[in-house]
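Input (structure):
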């Protein structure tokens, strides 16, 4: 960000004001430009700030994608709790697969909550960032629609909760025929 400020056509006094504003952590928000910057340089300052926010968002989304990918890959390493059985072997109920199943369910729910949270934060950032809105409207309008007004996180949350409820419902097994009653 400091290089973008240095490369801009701002005078040295305005550059030091902007640098101090950025160093304060943008606690007042991007729209509250510090006083002392000449009015003709305010669009340049806003361009630098919006570009920096867009770059930061891009890297945050990239980092989130890496974590989600690693989570998906790690789920492939979870062993299948159902043991393969043969018709002639006797099966005994084992309590450990239920524990593994519960652990897997907790991991899946935690990943789901993390994904919805990340999507909600990206959607919030989309609503705050005019450059991000413009980029999505020019390059990927359907994604912009899903990020606008938290439509995407709500749809993902509804679909995810529906899948979790569907998977947690008890399944009915078909009735087994008794070989002695068949004539």
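Output (sequence):
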């Amino acid at each position: 960000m400091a290089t973008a400020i240095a490369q801009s056509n701002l005078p040295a006094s305005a550059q030091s004001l902007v640098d101090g504003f950025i160093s304060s952590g943008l606690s007042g928000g991007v729209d509250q430009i510090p006083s002392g910057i000449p009015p003709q340089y305010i669009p340049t300052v806003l361009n630098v700030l919006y570009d920096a926010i867009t770059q930061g968002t891009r890297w945050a989304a990239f980092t989130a994608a890496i974590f989600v990918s690693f989570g998906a890959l790690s789920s492939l390493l979870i062993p299948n709790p159902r043991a393969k059985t043969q018709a002639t072997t006797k099966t005994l109920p084992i309590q450990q697969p239920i524990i593994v199943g519960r652990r897997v369910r907790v991991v899946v729910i935690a990943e789901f909550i993390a994904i919805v949270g990340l999507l909600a934060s990206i959607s919030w950032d989309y609503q705050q960032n005019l450059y991000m809105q413009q980029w999505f409207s020019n390059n990927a309008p359907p994604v912009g629609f899903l990020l606008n007004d938290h439509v995407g996180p709500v749809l993902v949350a509804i679909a995810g909760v529906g899948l979790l409820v569907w998977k947690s419902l008890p399944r009915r097994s078909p009735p087994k025929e008794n070989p002695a009653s068949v004539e």
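Notes: The chain has a mean pLDDT of 74. The radius of gyration is 27 Å.
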